[in-house]
Amino acid sequence: MENLALIDSFSEFKDDKLIDRVTLMAILEEVFRNALKKKFGSDDNFDIIINPDKGDLEIWRNRVVVADGEVEDPNEEISLSAAQKIEPDFEIGEDVSEEVKLIDLGRRSILALRQNLIAKIHEHDNTNIYKHFKDLEGEIYTAEVHHIRHRAVILLDDDGNEIILPKEKQIPSDFFRKGDNVRGIIESVDLKGNKPTIIMSRANPIFLEKLFEQEIPEVFDGLITVKKVVRIPGEKAKVAVDSYDDRIDPVGACVGMKGSRIHGIVRELGNENIDVINYTSNLNLYISRALSPAKVTSIKINEETKRAEVILRPEEVSKAIGRGGHNIRLAGQLTGYEIDVLREGAEEDVELSEFSDEIEAWVIQEFHKIGLDTAKSVLEHDINDLVKRTDLEEETIRDVINILKEEFEE
Fold first, then answer.
1. Under 8 Å between Cβ of 326 and 369
2. Closest listed residue to residue 404, CA positions, set 345, 356, 355
3. Where in the numbering of this chain does the K Homology domain appear (predicted)?
């Protein structure tokens, strides 16, 4: 039989893609059966014999011998005179097997066969890639920078698989050059058409959790458990850790002597500030630890509203809130409670939110951003200082101060 380029390409794929023999034979048979359906209307009466090792393939059509002039379906029936040209002693009712040459399918069909074969093998390959990476979702993966675009970095792994690291999944300080090795987690894998789309993330909290597993032996061995991770990528993170072995100090083990263990993780994350705290089921203590480095005087918890009122000395308030409000925001995410900060000795103070009927919400939010949550905390500051620290106009700030002063003048 003609050993056409079609079969040659079949052998190439077998070597390059390492597709198992059974799968290759199934793909090739499917492609040929589709071609036979197009050519003859049905493939039910065809036998396809494949020998992939030799690059050999045979197609046999089986038809029933009928009397001359009684052929109704030329694909499944053959006249007696035509059958006897194949073999003189054929009789009516017997089965005739006749080999179909590839060349009989026509040049156009053969070209389509080759294209379909390549497409099917690519489809099989893509399905395997999809399954492989789907199993790796949430795991750390390393790939090399291949191309840098405005909204994403395109990476290639050792097998030539394309992985996308979108801008929003990067740490703000990330800077890559072609050829750099990049670590992140496989965040999602989707099939778009027949092609798998693999998304990597360095901003996902799971990436930090997996770095702890990779870099800290006690976490890897299960002696220390990472209970929860919250992050503002590239800025700050809080990691709650616990150990069921009282002999192990989970925070000390994670940080290491003079920060030796956590230093590599911090460097990987663009000098992200990482607070490691001891997890506890004691909610008051947990919230207090979550607000580290601030020292809390007392906490009042409302479990129904999931709010915690935290009282601190005035000098501790800015520590609790942190730069840009990062510390208090992450503490809230870590504990699952909305945290309100009050200054010690400010019992007669009034929350800014109480003035929502007179002061617009976005204006109150601007004060919240710089750690000013109460009327007195705003009144303690100079107007020029407030103009510099917020995005508010001087006139707006004066109006707010007048409203707040009226509260206390009454």
1. no
2. 355
3. 233-306, 307-384
